[in-house]
Specification:
electron transfer activity, glycoprotein, disulfide bond, Phytocyanin domain-containing protein, 8 strands, alpha/beta, single chain, about 25% helix, three-stranded mixed beta sheet, signal
């Protein structure tokens, strides 16, 4: 166990002990059958707030009376045969170590039936029982390099690469030859006509 944790637990224990309140049962501390017309022990308890770490003092004649810690059933029936705990020293101080209900009755059944009984409800402490603060969330250390961004996806092999920047598409040259010069047709016809006219003269000379 670390020294820091030991110091923290000791501090919490010291605060709990320092803040604890000691109550005297009924306000006076006397544990006995209430007098006629007097406030009952439960009426006194309802006017007070009990919390974990508080304690209550019972004063009574030793060997003549006692304080029994019992469950709710024994409390309601004043059954003193099987108590959770029994105190007979005449000056009992009981500390509330937990929250919830506590039931006390006299060890004498007649006294219990005549009002020497007490029900106390102890409230839970609002602060953290361990006294330890919640751990802070983790954060990256100062000066750590930023996380790298995931690499960009490569282009699909099936898609054609884009044309180079600044260059347009090349249009293929037309395979159709240019039409012949229209002036050559009359010249050919004239030469053919003159040739036919000189054929008879050539036959005479031959």
């Amino acid at each position: 166990m670390s020294k820091g944790l030991i110091v923290t637990l000791c501090f919490v224990l010291l605060v709990s002990v320092t803040a604890a309140t000691q109550f005297k049962v009924g306000g006076s501390g006397d544990w006995k059958v209430p007098e006629s017309g007097a406030k009952s022990y439960n009426q006194w308890a309802e006017a007070n707030r009990f919390k974990m770490g508080d304690n209550i003092a019972f004063t009574y004649p030793a060997n003549q009376d006692s304080v029994l810690l019992v469950d709710s059933n024994a409390y309601n029936s004043c059954d003193a045969t099987s108590p959770i705990d029994r105190f007979t020293d005449g000056n009992t101080i009981f500390t509330f170590a937990r929250s919830g209900s506590f039931y006390f009755i006299s060890g004498k059944q007649d006294n219990c039936k005549n009002g020497e009984k007490l029900h106390i409800v102890v409230l839970a402490n609002r602060n953290n029982s361990t006294g330890l603060a919640p751990s802070p969330s983790l954060s990256p250390p100062t000066g750590a390099p930023p996380a790298e961004a995931p690499p960009a996806e490569a282009p699909s092999a099936s898609s054609p690469p884009p044309p180079p920047s600044g260059e347009g598409e090349i249009t293929p040259a037309s395979s159709t030859p240019p039409p012949p010069n229209a002036a050559s047709f009359p010249m050919i016809s004239l030469v053919g006509t003159l040739g036919l006219a000189f054929v008879p003269f050539l036959n005479i000379l031959v």
